[in-house]
# Entry
Amino acid sequence: MKQDIILAGVGGQGILSIAYVIDNAALADGLFFKQAEVHGMAQRGGAVQSHMRLSNEAIWSDLIPKGEADMILSVEPLEALRYFEYLRPGGIVVTSSTPYRNIPDYPDIDRVLDAVRQAPRCVVVDSEQLAREAGTVKAQNIVLLGAASGSLILKEASLLLTIDALFRGRGATILEANLKAFELGKKAALDA
Amino acid sequence: MSHQILLGDEAIALGAVHAGLSAGYSYPGTPASEIMEYLVRLAGETKAFTAVWSVNEKVAYEEALGASFAGKRALVSFKHVGLNVAADPFMNSAVTGANGGLLVVSADDPGMHSSQNEQDSRYYVQFAQIIAYEPSDHQEAYDMAREAFDVSERFGLPVLMRMVTRLAHSRSPVQTREPRGPNELKTGASKDWTLLPVNARRRFAMLLDRQPDMVRFSEGSQFNVLKLNESDRSLGVIASGVGYNYFREALKGEGALPSFLKISTYPLPEGLIRELVGHVDTVLVVEDGYPFIERQLKGLFGIAGKTVLGKLSGAFPATGELSPDIVRRALGRGPLPAVAASGLPLSGRPPQLCVGCPHADTFKALNKAREDYPGSNVFSDIGCYTLGALPPYNAVQTCVCMGASIGMARGASDVGLHPAISVIGDSTFAHSGITPLLGAACADTDMTVIVLDNATTAMTGGQPSCGTGERLLRIIEGVGVPKEHIRTIEPLPKNHEKNIQIIKEELDHRGLSVIVAVRECVQEQRKKRS
# Structure
C-alpha cells in the first residue's frame, strides 16, 4: 500500500500546513513517509510544491518519480496543471477553482479549469467560498485537505486529531473554522 | 527511544544535541537555516546548551572552534557558500585540530534553488584533508551527527557533514536514542593551536600522516556499504548521499540489484572502490553535485578495460539537481507511464517581493532618482531585495556574494563611474558590509550606499539581525562616514517625493554617503500581530 501526492500552490497558501497534517496523521497510522518541501526564495509568492510519499514499506526517494503520483492536491488551479506529468494513469487531481492572480499573464480561468478536467479523475472545489462559509478565508488549504480526505489512505480520525493539535493553540474560533472547513471540503468532494 | 518527525536539517541538529552539544553557531542561509532554527528553539526550552545566530559564517566558525578548544562539543552550520566565508578558519582548524568534538555542517544546493552557485563541499573536505559524512536519509543524518562528535574527538580534527537541499528540506520520522551528556570544560591550551611556522609544520605533517588512518576509517564505516552481485559482472553502481536513494528507487521491485557501493563517509573508501571496480566492467557513478567521485575514479587516463559513466561521461546532466527520473534514465530504464503534461501554456510564477514590502518603495524612489543619471549602476547584495532585479522594478544590477555590493561600488567609483550606488540589507551589512564601508570612509569614496534596514534577516525566514536600528546608525557613523551624509528615509508611498529628493542630493554629493531606509519587514510585522 502506497500513496504519492504532489501538494501544490503559491507561497503563503498554507501548503506546508497541509503537509504537516498529513505527516502527523501518517505517523499516527504507523506508515512510513517522506515529504520534500520548498523553503527559501520560492516561498515569496512563487510556485511551491511538496512531494508527499506515504507507504507501508520503507521509501527510497524523497522525490516522486514522474508517473508515480497518485494524487495532485492543489490549493490553486494553475498550480495543479504544473505537475500533470507526475500523475500516473488513473490518478486524481483535487484542486481549488479559485485562481491566485499575482502574475500579469494569468491565463483565462475557464481554460485553466477545462485543462484541469483533462485529468483522469478530478475534484474541483470552490475553496474560497467554502472557507468563507467555514469562518475564515485562510482555511482554503484545509478545505482542500477535506476534499482529498476520502481519497487518502490515512484515517480521517488521525487527520482531524492533527488539525486539532495544529489549531488549538490559536483559539477556539480558528480551530472551529478549520474543522468546519475540513467538513465542507469533504462534503463538496462527495457532491462533485 | 521514540520517533520524531524531523527535517533532514533538524535530524542533524537533534543528533548533535543528543551527542552532548554545548554550543552551536550559524549564519542563516538556505538550505542550512533550519539547523540553527531548531537548535535555538530547543536551547530556549531546555537551557541545556548555547545556540547563536552569529554575525557571519567566519565568526560562527571561530566561535565554534573556541568552544571546541575549551573541550566542549560544538557545531557550526551554514550553506555551501558560507563555507567560502569561513574557509580561512576551516582550513586552519584542520591544522590546529579540534579538542572537544567539532561538527561543521555545510549544506549544498544542487540546482541552485536559493543560491548563486552549485559548489560541492566535498572539495573542501579534500582540500582540508579531513573526514566527512554525506547522509542519504534522515536517520543517517541523526546517527551521523551523533557519531561525528566521537570521530572528531578520536582523530582530534573537525568533521564535516555535507548536506544537500533535497534532504535538508524533507521531513520523515527519525528514531532517536538516549542522549549523552556534555563534555567537561577543559582549561589550558595546546601549542597545536598557535600556528607559528614551527607548530604549523609539525601539525601539517601529522595531518598528512593521519590520511591512511582516515581512509581505513572510511572503509570500515557502517555508512559505506558494498554489495557484490556474484552472478552479474556487467554493471556496478557507486552512489553517494541522496543519489543512493534514486538508484534504489529506480530499481525497486526488480529483484537482484547490480553490484553497488554506497558512499556516505569520506575520504573515499579506496579499498571498497577497488573491490567494486575489479568486479564489474562498467561503473555508473551517481552523485548529487559535482562529479567528485567520478573525476577521481577516472583520473587523467581512465581505468584500462573499464567504462566509467557519470556526469563527465554525459550519463547525467553536468548541472542541476539529480532526480529519480534522471537516475532511472541513466540506468537504462524507460519513463514510467504518466498523464500527459497539460497543453495549456503555463505562466511561470517566480518569487517576488511581498505586497507592502519596504524594499519596493525604496526601489521605486531609487529608480525615479536615477532617471537623471543614465550612467549610474546599482550594485546589489544578497537578500529579498535581490528580487529588485526582476520586473516590475529592474532596479539592481548585481548579486555576487555577501557584502560584495559596497566593495564593487567602490571599485567602479575608483575607475570613474558616477554615481556608484550600493544597496545592501541590514543583516548583510552586519555580515560583511562594515569592512568595505570602513575602507570607503578612509578614502571618502564617491559613492552612495543604501542600507535597507528592515530589522531582520528576511529571505531566510526572519532570523535576528545584528546591525539594525540605532546600532546600525552608530556603526555607520563609527566607521567614519560624515554625519551630514548619513541620511534616513522611511520607505512609504506617502514619502515618495521626499525620498527621491534625499537620494538625489546624495547622488550629487561627490563623496561618501549612506542612506538608511528604515521600515520593518511586513512578514515580521505580521508574525508579531498573530
